[in-house]
Specification:
The complex is a heterotrimer of chains A (641), B (321) and C (524). Chain A is α/β, with parallel strands linked by helices and 641 residues long. In chain A, 49% of the residues lie in helices and 13% in strands. The longest helix of chain C has 21 residues. Classes of the chains: A alpha/beta (641), B mainly alpha (321), C alpha+beta (524).
Chain lengths: 641, 321, 524
């Protein structure tokens, strides 16, 4: 881990109050363990006081059956707990690191044998093996630690092995080897330090486990007789539970505190190392709906555009960061029209699709914008529209009139259900009166339409080829004869031949069924064949929108020009966006200047300082560029080599 | 047919586990100090009698012959006779299995049900305050020493409130058949089962929470929402089955830990199960019982992992057998 | 229903209920730790079998807790016995009305058959018959045993061991068997004791019922049931719930609870002294314990009262002689272990050339002991007392068999131990004689050996006493062991019941340590 990474991790750590408290508890335990001989405490073994005294000002935790001061014994017990925790986890981790990295590094037969050994050891019930070892060889703290280490090492060995397997293919490791470093040197210097992070995390949890294991042994009477361990105190206290419950209560509480703190610390470390763990997923948050505008027609206006989007804004919240994935998008899509939305991954085009259907992730929020469907508002001010006391309008539109085709390679179909189950239940969801047979009949109808063999209906998604799966997704989207379909990257990850087939099918269906279509793609070529109009998205904004032909012939934005430059050649070889240096821009707050400026070959100081206005270069052609007019005029470079 | 071959294959994979377990236990026990012959013959025994005992138990054979002899016996399903009771080890173990199964099973059902329920509920709001609180709470739960929790529950519910019995599995002279006996046993089981379930539940809460919230981020969930299913349907019929997969995996891996909890809990509550038998056997140095119990335990764990794989396959059509 | 008929009905019911109560058989449930292996007691040690079989079978001579009140042995099937003047011939006269549960009389032939079989098969009881030269049966009710050498401990030891593995088997039912391990009666025992065998299935209780023709008279308990309860907590809870009236000392409650129990009128707390002590054995082969000055200093450093207070709630009596209080006639009260004096102990250690060194320690010792809870209490406090005089004492705990093997190998410094002093004082030789079976200390004293060898042959107790007193003086002088406490057992009995073996009302009536013949239920 480099320094910057360490700083990030530390920042994450100290931002979590629970982790901080847990860390302080562990620190306190360490301090107590170190300082206890110098504290003015009674000798923990001295039987000087009245036995069975309950907790009092003199003996905070009371005294035990031999008249020993429990407070002193518990503080001394901290020492034993930490020695056990650190000793056994250090030993176990060391063993694990050595064997794990050797196994991962050498690979081949020795790896096969060793990883089988790890597996076998992981199957042996750890505690019983420790129990057996200690029972047979006598109870002593050292042996207990060795026994715990002997039975837990495969954990870190497995982690280390997989780390080494990933790391050893990295260039710097290869380079070090090529430079003549010996294998152990490389392991010590390059591989082990990089694999340490998850092992440290596991180590804190192992420490908690070691304390509990030692306590469990002590409780079974197999603890070291000459040490004051919390487990042994509980073991002794058990016999006097009725007479002196405090003998059991306090050592148990101490153990709970320390083990809990260690586990919480491990959990905090884990989250700091993998920050995305905490906030992924979840159910969408409920946003109170707003009533429709008073001046709205009560029935749908057949003359109104299918979709009218104004100032739509979608924000992701990741920790305290805000990312504006959709930042003020507006467009109008007439009935039966087709719009292509094009941009690099991360430009917000898929978020736009989700925002239109209002199926956004839990950590996303629509902060502004209006969406009208057939002239009736479904989103106002970023909030869903519902007639007073009724469900949001979008819920009646979804799928029945407005559906979406996801990219099926990305798990858009539920992997544990058959195609039949997913399609039939989707159909019956909106046609509750339909029998399963009627629903299946409708599914077959759509299958025939798209060219899916009927017997596929009983397959699971993973049993279908990529193209077939995509067709099933399309069938799902068309099942209820919607007016409007969004196709979100429907052909990505398919091979070129299938891509063309699918696109052709979508296009044909659109025309046959009169469906209004939004096609989202990262590829200008894809939308060129299917769509009347194209919108180019960059950093959450539509930077240029125009009829398809116009945008290809007279692009008015440098980004569009770059995308066109990236068109696949006729021979099928694809030129990457390599002509565009730099990373795509991500809008994390208010931005001054043009978002594309850092990557733009034509950028001027004006571009870097002033947000470009929307320039109408033609009645239906707009571009977010200070120099739009000049761009339109500029001749196109030879697009393909 | 494929299933049968798969099972056969997996069972074959268990063979090295079994061998390691048997040899390991045998090594440990024979390397340890202490003389089993004294225990068998009694401390006062006549030396000639002692010798005859050694011969009868094969204790005078060379080490490797004892090992081979033991391996041979185990492979024919014979785990030997208990030194203490002179009953077949298998019978002794099997007599204790139902009690442990009942206790561990009940506790697991409680822990998994409650854990998955709570975990699913909080998974809807990852990163929220409730999520953080429940997360800290569940980590605290599995940081509790199980035997201590048992003692505390005894202290409160058996000693202080006198609501429930503190130990055993049934009352002496209590009802021995019918509904009354079932109720008697159930009353005795409440505290140990709750103890185990409490310590385990935290783990399942966390697991279900992580797994459900990850599944909720999957695209097919977005599809389900887009299709127009209500959030309840999405959660229960589209997300949960996928989310249960890791729970099943951990459940299988947990059997070893579950048995650990069982030994400690059975000790606290004097529950007459397998765990307590092992503990008694270790204290009495009843070697055949210890070795037999370990073999059975390790097999249980290995078989549990096999059962987990099968269950996983049943839940996830992507896993082909 | 008018008032009169109602009254009559009530009266009838009351009478009927009374009659039922009178006929209601008395059942006694006794908890025990282990399940029997078999119900044939004679071929092997079987802790779970002792209790049931001791109530099913009879013995030639026997002994119960009456031993602590001075009865080393009494006759069971033997009505009385005489020892010849040379001490070598013992003539047992059997009772004439004893019958086996199948109705056949018990005769001398059964006794001879049983003893001969045990000697031939080297069963555990054979160890107590080692001195036997010959067993004769001049008639059906006389057994004459001739010993190789005179041995005054022969009958008491035979009586003690009879409770475990010395039952008299019916010859007519066992003749066809090679030993006592096989045959139809291994688990279907026919004895001549106070209770007949009824039923036992493995895992279940052993059920017995009163034998009407028992030669001492029918027992007052009608049904006797032994139920296995492995756990002290469970047994205690069941005793508290009045599921049985007697909680044997195997399940002794923590002594700290005794004061509270003693306040409870419905419970009798029974303390039973024994003929054992709790003491520490010192390994004389190891320095500096080989130095008598060091051993004396150790003895001076031990505060028995503090151990009793901390470990036993002050309920155990210190033992300051080389004997225990129950051996009244045999104790040498003139010699006693040094009194506690910590400062003096420190001086003695200084004088022995073992001054406190760096860290304040003079030398280190390991302290071990068997896994009895009372030994654990003693060693726990002892460690602290020794540390206070600068001896770096550490606990070494092993499981029972490891501990015993280490003792046999002489691989220990100091160990808690349980020295036996009865039923015959010849026990001293086993513990302290050169090569004695329980002389783990490596103590060798030719004079002591000679005295012991002589004392066991003397038929007149008055002649034996001085010799044993002399031996005790040697033990206190040489100090191979330091006596600490009189062993004491704690049992609980429900008020109203009496005659349990650990109670004084059960002494010399229980037949064995495990016998329930003497039990008197409430109202009988």
């Amino acid at each position: 881990m480099n320094r910057a990474r360490v700083e990030v991790v530390v920042r994450h750590l100290i931002r979590n109050p629970v982790t901080v408290v847990a860390g302080l508890v562990v620190l306190a335990a360490v301090v107590i363990a170190a300082a206890v001989p110098w504290l003015a405490l009674p000798d923990p073994e001295a039987m000087d006081f009245v036995p069975y005294s309950p907790p009092s000002a003199e003996h905070w935790f009371g005294t035990d059956n031999y008249g020993r001061d429990l407070f002193s014994r518990i503080l001394w017990g901290t020492r034993v707990a930490l020695v056990v925790a650190i000793g056994s986890s250090a030993l176990s981790t060391l063993l694990g690191i050595v064997l794990g990295s050797l196994s991962g590094y050498h690979g081949g037969l020795s790896d096969a044998i060793m990883s089988r050994t790890f597996d076998v050891f992981l199957l042996i019930p750890t505690f019983f093996l420790v129990l057996l070892i200690v029972a047979l060889f006598g109870a002593s703290l050292g042996l207990t630690m060795v026994a715990i280490a002997m039975t837990t090492w495969p954990r870190s060995a497995r982690i280390m092995r997989s780390q080494v397997l990933t790391l050893k293919t990295r260039t710097y490791v290869q380079a070090a080897l090529a430079a003549g470093a010996s294998a152990p040197q490389v392991l010590m210097r390059h591989v082990v330090p990089n694999g340490l992070a998850p092992i440290v995390t596991d180590g804190t949890i192992l420490m908690g486990l070691a304390i509990l294991t030692e306590a469990g042994l002590s409780f079974l009477g197999l603890g070291d007789q000459n040490t004051v361990s919390w487990g042994r105190m509980i073991f002794e206290g058990q016999r006097h539970l009725r007479l002196a419950p405090w003998m059991s209560i306090f050592p148990g509480l101490s153990m709970l505190l320390l083990v809990g703190a260690l586990n919480l610390l491990g959990d905090g470390l884990n989250h700091a190392l993998n920050p995305q763990l905490r906030t992924r997923g979840g159910a969408p948050r409920h946003v109170p709906p707003v009533p429709p505008p008073a001046d709205e027609p009560t029935v749908e206006d057949p003359a109104a555009p299918m979709l009218d989007v104004r100032g739509l804004r979608l924000v992701y919240r990741i920790g305290r960061r805000e990312i504006r994935a959709v930042d003020g998008v507006s467009f109008v899509l007439p009935r039966g029209g087709s719009l292509g939305i094009v941009g690099e991954s991360g430009c917000g085009k898929s978020s736009l699709g989700a925002a239109l259907l209002q199926v956004i992730p839990a950590n996303a929020e629509l902060t502004a914008g209006e969406v009208r469907f057939g002239g009736r508002a479904i989103l106002l001010g970023g909030r869903p529209v519902a007639e007073r006391g009724r469900r949001p309008r979008i819920r009646d539109l979804r799928w029945a009139r407005f559906s979406i085709i996801f990219q099926s390679a990305m798990n858009a179909l539920n992997p544990v259900f058959t195609v039949r189950r997913q399609l039939v239940s989707a159909y019956r969801r909106h046609r509750p009166d339909a029998t399963p047979e009627a629903a299946a009949a409708r599914v077959f109808e759509v299958f025939d339409l798209i060219g899916i063999p009927r017997q596929r209906i009983d397959s699971y998604p993973h049993e279908l080829s990529g193209g077939m799966r995509q067709r099933v997704m399309i069938a799902l989207a068309l099942l209820l004869e919607p007016d409007m379909v969004i196709a979100d990257e429907p052909t990505t990850a398919l091979d070129v031949l299938i891509q063309d087939q699918i696109l052709g099918e979508i296009d044909a269906l659109r025309r046959r069924l009169g469906v209004t279509l939004i096609l989202i793609s990262h590829d200008m070529g894809t939308v060129a064949e299917t769509c009347d109009r194209v919108a180019v998205m960059y950093a959450g904004q539509i930077v240029e929108i125009a009829p398809t032909a116009t945008i290809f012939e007279r692009p008015a934005h440098p980004y569009t020009r770059a995308l066109i430059g990236a068109l696949p050649s006729l021979t099928g070889a694809r030129r990457a966006l390599a002509s565009l240096p730099g990373e795509p821009f991500v809008a994390a707050g208010d931005v001054a200047g043009c978002r594309f400026a850092p990557r733009c070959g034509h950028a001027t100081d004006l571009c870097r300082a002033t947000t470009p206005p929307s320039v109408a270069v033609a009645p239906d052609h707009a571009s977010l560029c200070h120099f739009a007019d000049a761009m339109v005029a500029a001749p196109l470079p030879e697009a393909t080599a | 047919m494929r299933l049968r071959r798969y099972v056969l294959f997996r069972v074959l994979q268990l063979v090295p586990v079994a061998l390691v377990v048997i040899v390991l236990n045998f090594l440990l026990i024979h390397l340890a100090p202490g003389d089993v012959a004294i225990l068998l013959a009694g401390e006062d025994a006549d030396p000639t009698y002692m010798a005859s005992v050694r011969a009868a138990y094969g204790l005078d054979l060379p080490f490797h012959e004892q090992l081979l002899r033991y391996l041979g016996q185990v492979l024919t399903g014979d785990l030997g006779l208990s030194y203490r009771s002179r009953q077949p080890v298998m019978d002794e173990l099997m007599a204790r299995v139902p009690a442990t199964l009942m206790l561990v099973g009940t506790a697991l059902v409680i822990a998994v049900t409650v854990g998955v329920l709570v975990g699913t509920l909080i998974a809807r709001r990852p990163g929220s305050a409730v999520d953080s609180v429940v997360s800290v709470l569940s980590i605290s739960l599995f940081s509790i020493p199980v035997f201590w929790l048992g003692l505390m529950l005894i202290l409160w519910f058996a000693v202080h409130l006198r609501w429930l019995p503190s130990s055993g599995m049934g009352s002496v002279g209590g009802p021995r058949e019918g509904m009354a006996m079932v109720m008697d046993v159930a009353r005795h089981m409440i505290l140990p089962a709750v103890t185990l379930a409490t310590v385990w539940v935290g783990q399942y809460v966390r697991l279900a929470r992580t797994s459900v919230s990850e599944v909720l981020a999957e695209n097919y969930i977005v599809t389900a929402r887009a299709v127009g299913y209500g959030e309840g349907t999405v959660l229960l019929s589209h997300a949960l089955r996928n989310a249960l997969l890791p729970v099943v995996t951990v459940l299988g891996l947990q059997i070893g830990l579950a048995l650990t909890g069982a030994v400690l809990t059975e000790t606290v509550f004097s529950w007459p199960g397998l765990g307590r038998l092992i503990y008694e056997a270790i204290l009495a140095r009843d070697t055949p019982i210890i070795m037999g119990a370990f073999i059975i335990m390790s097999f249980t764990v290995a078989l549990a992992s096999l059962a987990t794989d099968l269950l996983y396959a049943a839940l996830d059509p992507r896993v082909s057998l | 229903m008018n008032r009169m008929t109602k009254g009559i009905a009530t009266a009838i019911l009351a009478v009927w209920a009374g009659a039922a109560a009178a006929q209601q058989p008395v059942t006694l449930v006794v908890p025990q730790l282990d399940e029997p292996r078999t119900l044939s007691p004679n071929f092997a040690a079987d802790t779970g079998g002792y209790s049931p079989t001791s109530n099913i079978y009879s013995h030639l001579v026997t002994m119960d807790w009456g031993v602590v009140a001075g009865t080393p042995a009494y006759g069971d099937l033997a009505e009385r016995w005489e020892t010849s003047a040379d001490g070598r011939t013992i003539t047992f006269h059997l009772v004439r009305n004893a019958t086996f549960h199948d109705g056949k009389p018990v005769t001398a032939a059964d006794v001879k058959f049983t003893f001969d079989t045990m000697i031939r098969k080297r069963y555990p009881y054979a160890a107590f018959l080692r001195a036997v030269e010959e067993i004769r049966t001049p008639d059906d009710f006389t057994v004459v045993v001739t010993l190789k050498t005179p041995d005054m401990s022969f009958v008491p030891m035979m009586a003690q061991a009879a409770g475990w593995t010395g039952k008299i088997y019916p010859k007519h039912l066992w003749e066809g068997q090679d030993g006592f391990e096989t045959g139809p009666h291994v688990n279907n025992p026919i004895g001549s004791g106070p209770f007949k065998f009824v039923r036992w299935e493995r895992g279940g209780p052993v059920e017995l019922e009163a034998y009407d023709k028992y030669f001492r008279g029918r027992p007052k308990v009608d049904r006797l049931i032994f139920r296995r309860i492995t756990d002290a907590n469970v047994a205690r809870a069941d005793f508290d719930a009045e599921r049985f009236p007697y909680l044997p000392y195997d399940y002794a409650p923590p002594l700290a609870e005794v004061p509270a129990l003693q306040r409870d009128r419905s419970i009798k707390v029974v303390f039973t002294p024994s003929h054992y002590s709790r003491d520490i054995q010192l390994n004389l082969r190891r320095a500096p314990l080989d130095n008598i000055k060091v051993r004396e200093a150790l003895a001076t450093a031990i505060d028995r009262d503090a151990i009793s207070r901390l470990g036993f709630q002050g309920l155990w009596k210190p033992a300051v002689h080389a004997n225990v209080d129950t051996q009244t006639d045999w104790i040498n009260r003139d010699v006693r272990y040094p009194a506690f004096d910590r400062a003096k102990a420190e001086r003695m250690l200084d004088e022995a050339g073992l001054p406190r060194r760096e860290g304040g320690w003079r030398f280190a010792v390991g302290i071990t002991g068997p896994s009895y809870s009372d030994c654990k209490s003693i060693t726990e406090v002892l460690v602290q007392q020794l540390r206070q005089v600068g001896i770096n004492a550490r606990l070494e705990q092993f499981d029972q068999s490891t501990w015993f093997r280490r003792m046999q190998e002489g691989n220990f410094d100091i160990s808690c131990y349980f020295t036996r002093y009865g039923p015959d004082p010849d026990a001293y030789r086993e513990h302290f004689g050169t090569g004695g079976q329980r002389n783990f200390m490596g103590y060798t004293n030719a004079e002591f050996d000679q005295l012991g060898a002589k004392a066991v042959t003397l038929t007149n107790p008055a002649e034996r006493v001085p010799l044993y007193k002399q031996m005790q003086a040697m033990l206190v002088r040489d100090m191979p062991y330091i006596n600490l406490f009189n062993e004491q057992k704690t049992s609980l009995v429900r008020a109203g019941w009496s005659g349990f073996p650990a109670e004084e009302s059960g002494y010399d009536k229980s037949v064995t340590w495990f016998g329930y013949f003497g039990v008197v239920p409430p109202g009988k």
